[in-house]
Amino acid sequence: MTPLALHNQHVQRLRRLIGRRESRLGEGVVVVEGAKVLAEALDAGIGVDAVFVSAAVAAAEPVLSRLARNVPVHIVADDVLGRISDTKTPQPLCAVVRRSADALTALEPGLRAGGFALVAVDLRDPGNAGTLLRSAEAAGAAGVVFAGSSVDVTNPKVVRASAGALFHVPVVTGVSPGEVVSAFVGWGVRTWAAVVSSDGSVDYDRADLTGPTALVVGNEARGLSTGELDLIEGRLTIPMAGRTDSLNVSMSATLLAFEAARQRR
Fold this sequence. Notes:
Strand 6 (143-147), helix 7 and strand 7 (171-175) form a beta-alpha-beta unit. Helix 6 packs parallel to helix 7 and helix 6 (126-139) packs parallel to helix 10. This protein has helices at residues 9-19, 21-27, 35-43, 80-84, 108-112, 126-139, 156-162, 177-186, 226-231, 249-264; strands spanning 29-33, 48-54, 73-76, 93-98, 116-121, 143-147, 171-175, 190-194, 202-203, 213-217, 234-237. It is of the alpha/beta class. The strands form 2 sheets. A 7-stranded parallel β-sheet has the order 7-6-5-10-8-11-9, sandwiched between helices.
């Protein structure tokens, strides 16, 4: 079998899905890169639409044996994935997998049972979004919400940074901060905003995060606006011993998530 070249229609579809948000959303798919992330998707029961694998590694790639018989596996020329990837060191395997958006109500059972959720408002950086997803899943969050004009979670950079966590935790997008807080209040969830200033705030490790809880972080540059803060019940701050006055937003969210997990233990 001759490996597929760059101009092949299937390869061109993959290229389109990697580069265009509208194409991914229109087809209801995401592109995963690497055998490990594909294995995470399979572990989560995610449907696989197609796999593209470099001819050099195709015969020795064990994850291929886990695919359903009807999943097409396209063997591509060894330089193809490097030419269509947006990374400097592309993986020798890519897959198109199905992903349907979660509704906000998907978080309700876990929160009503005393769980916690992470909420990001206007988060723009794909790396931050992926890290936040990974931390939320690792800490046992009931779900993650990307509210406002946050980055597209199907962005390949988000998928990579999440290391497969995207497939193991409910992820809600396309909602306003007001919609989120209104639903959470109706479910008996206490909302906490991460802030820099200590005025009127509680140190994150002294707050009671054991009940149904939502931990809200804001935009990388400006944080949460006054209007957004007015919607949220409590304020949390992370004390700083050095000259730095704040942490990267995904690092802050990670600390809050694992504090919530620690209190539950």
